[in-house]
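Aggregate trends can hide what the representation actually does to any particular protein. The sequence in question and its structure tokens are set out directly beneath this paragraph.
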Amino acid sequence: MSLRGSLEDVNLTDTIQILEMAGKAGCLEIINNNQTGRIYFKSGKVVHATLKNLIGQEVIFEMLLWEKGEFEFKINEQSSQETIKTSIQKLFMEGIKRIDEKRVKEKEKVLPIREKMERILKQLVSDDNQILGAIIVDFEGEIIFRILSGKLKDDTVLSVPELFFNFYRDYKKIKRPTIVQMFVNDEKGFVSFCKINSRLFLVSLSTPMARLGSLIFSLNKVVEEIAKQSK
């Protein structure tokens, strides 16, 4: 059985289940950047796994977090070690639980710097008469907090989550904090999305008459300041 592909097309859980149902023996090798993980099968059962200094089920938990990587199943490669005794379904359930816990912890990291961010955003909205609103959004598209001018209409604010998700599909390609995409509406103005770090984004709402040069300068300055506070 020849099996190779990308985790972006077929995720790890589906790949493992395919091999399990086929009752195969061999090694599933996954390469993600400079990391190479190996999962060993015996009669379709996961029996061993390695990743750098990790072995066993901890490897599965770590690799379930991978969203990118190239994989290949190698029939002739097997291991004499059997460090995994638990069923793969139980490992998947524990892995999902850990992923959820990690997301909660990531959100909790935002809380201690909330007051500092609010101060920065209040200053941005009050000092720059082009910007009518500034919103911090997390990696799931949830609004963490916002500073809005009274001039903004409710329907403009309500449209932010939908616009964010349209942008979010491509955000992982961004390598450094910057203004990455700008939506223009002649009636409502500019909606600008700025990546702060891997967890946070700044969404700004500006007037239709905003001067793009000074707008980009103001937003870059604020993003750099928030990025320092949120490390």
